[in-house]
Automatic annotation (TrEMBL):
The keyword Membrane applies. The chain crosses the membrane at residues 25-44. This is Transmembrane protein. Keywords: Membrane, Signal, Transmembrane, Transmembrane helix. Residues 1-19 form the signal peptide.
């Protein structure tokens, strides 16, 4: 649950921090892809509703 909270905070903070910066469009297009890959990796390595989730 802690990692899920961190991901949610990052998703909320990133849009507020990015607008002042002028990143290229391809970089903006790559952010959701990387986040989705990270979420899929976390979902595979740490299955939800398991004993590992309760430990953290």
């Amino acid at each position: 649950m802690f990692m899920l909270a961190v991901v949610i905070v990052i998703l909320v903070v990133l849009p507020a921090v990015l607008p002042p910066l002028p990143p290229p469009p391809m970089f903006l297009m790559g952010i959701p892809v990387v986040l989705m890959l990270m979420l899929i990796y976390l979902a595979i390595s740490y299955p939800p509703l398991g004993s590992s989730t309760c430990a953290s």
